[in-house]
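Have a close read of this protein, sequence plus C-alpha cells, and explain what the C-alpha cells say about the fold. Thanks in advance:
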Amino acid sequence: MDQAATLQMLVDRMAIQDCLTRYCRGCDRFDRDLILSCYHPDAEDDHGDFVGSPEEFVDWLFDLHEKGQISTQHCITNQSCEIDGDTAHTETYYQ
C-alpha cells in the first residue's frame, strides 16, 4: 500500500472511530441530534429487539432508557475495522 493509500485508510478509520464516539456520547446524554449525526439518511438500524429508521430508533432508545435507567455509560472496547475502497466493515464492542 502506498503512502497516500495508507494515509487515507487511517483518516477513514479515525472518522469511523469519531462516529462511534459521537454515538455513545449521544446515547449517554440523550442527545437526539448527536445520535442521528451518526447515520446515513437512508439508514436502517437493527438492534435485535428493534429494527427501523434512525429516528424511530432514537425514540425507542430514549423510551427504553427513561423507563429503567437514571444514567448510562457506553465504554468502547475492542474494535476491528476492514476498509475496502468505499466500503468498511466495523465491529465494535462496548460495555
Q: What stands out?
A: The CA atoms of residues 81 and 90 lie 4 Å apart. The longest strand covers residues 76-84. The chain has a mean pLDDT of 93. The chain is about 50% helix and 20% strand.
